[in-house]
Amino acid sequence: MKRVTPPDAMTDAERSRAIVTRARAATLSTVARDPAGYPYGSLVAVASDAAGRPLLLLSRLAEHTQNLAERSDASLLFAEELVAGAPLLSGGRVTLLGPCRLVPERERAGARATFLAAHADATYVDFPDFAFYRLEPIAARFVGGFGRMSWVSADEYLA
Amino acid sequence: MKRVTPPDAMTDAERSRAIVTRARAATLSTVARDPAGYPYGSLVAVASDAAGRPLLLLSRLAEHTQNLAERSDASLLFAEELVAGAPLLSGGRVTLLGPCRLVPERERAGARATFLAAHADATYVDFPDFAFYRLEPIAARFVGGFGRMSWVSADEYLA
Fold it and tell me: Is position B2 within any domain?
């Protein structure tokens, strides 16, 4: 029988990691070129690697990708799925902040396999305008519902 | 019998407005104080007023509120609910960009009524650390699924 550590026995770093690992979608925040300097949120498909770093498959035609080309500062917000009827803000969520950059050539095959394992339907994976990006967490903000929140260091999150 | 304009007969501005009107949650992107200048995504409950401007009820203890106090530049990402089994990125979504500021005293009663109409369970509405904020759209980015996207002007969106 599989046993899962109950949420209350997990540290905020562990809960953050669990939320990211399960997520298939997230909100990417980048810095807009126009209106210049505005934080720009967009919906992305995500998968995370064994170290908990999120992988994205982005089109260079998309706004967020052009924002990242200019400035790599980014964050990703991951939210737990709510059980039916639960209050809107009662679920856990985590924001990972860090630079988001193209995955280097030598790591692309691994990124592709990780991404496709989570998104078998990503038929756009071989479109010429799409490429893999990875966010390298430098900090994580965890919110565990009302009144429970903390900053989690990158070291704790990645451990 | 009620009839609804089919999505394809709607302009991108009309679809954007419809998505925002129906939404009860969104991702708020603000500019972080630390790591300084990073775009910071967080989950918020939203309601929109008759002009399509989003209203938020935020605690001054929250990261995003402290970010806004320093710099009001913000965006809100609204995503359509997907029908079961639909591809992850097939739904419509819209990002509204603009300054997000405290609702002026004389408009607070109206904001409260609008917000509570969408969030009857917002028991925190009268907590002393909570206050209403409104994002004033200066631009909107509409994405209608794969390969359909456009910038919508604030005038078109608010019309």
Answer: no
Instruction: Residue B149: give the domain boundaries.
Output: 7-158
| B-chain residue closest to A74, CA distance | B39
| Average pLDDT score, chain A | 93
- The structural domain count of chain B equals 1
Q: What is the mean pLDDT of each run of 10 residues along chain B (159 residues)?
A: 60 96 97 97 97 97 97 97 88 97 97 96 91 98 90 95
- Per the CB < 8 Å rule, is A97 touching B138? no
The reply to whether B134 falls in a domain is yes
Using the structure block, give the residue that is written with the tokens 């402290």: B66
Residue A12: both structure tokens together: 């905020």
Using DSSP, state whether B34 is helix, strand or coil: coil
Best interface-test mutation with A: which of B61, B71, B75 has the largest number of A CBs within 10 A? B75
Would the CB atoms of B35 and A119 count as touching at under 8 Å?
Answer: no
The beta strand positions in chain B, using DSSP E, are: 25-31, 39-48, 54-59, 73-79, 93-102, 130-135, 139-143, 149-153
Q: Which regions of chain A are under pLDDT 70?
A: 1-8
Q: What is the token pair recorded at B27?
A: 């991702």
Q: Which residues of B105-125 are buried (b: 16+ CB within 10 A; e: fewer)?
A: eeeeeebbebbeebbeebeee
| Torsion sign across C-alpha atoms A138, A93, A38, B103 | negative
- Cβ of B75 within 8 Å of Cβ of A40? The answer is yes
DSSP state of B82: P
B141 — contact with chain A (CB < 8 Å)?
yes
| A96: CATH | 2.30.110.10
Verify whether the Cβ–Cβ distance A41 to B30 is below 8 Å: no
Domain assignment of residue B1, yes or no: no
Please provide the DSSP assignment of B106-132 as one string. GGHHHHHHHHHHH-TT-GGGG-TTEEE
Q: Is residue A2 part of a domain?
A: no
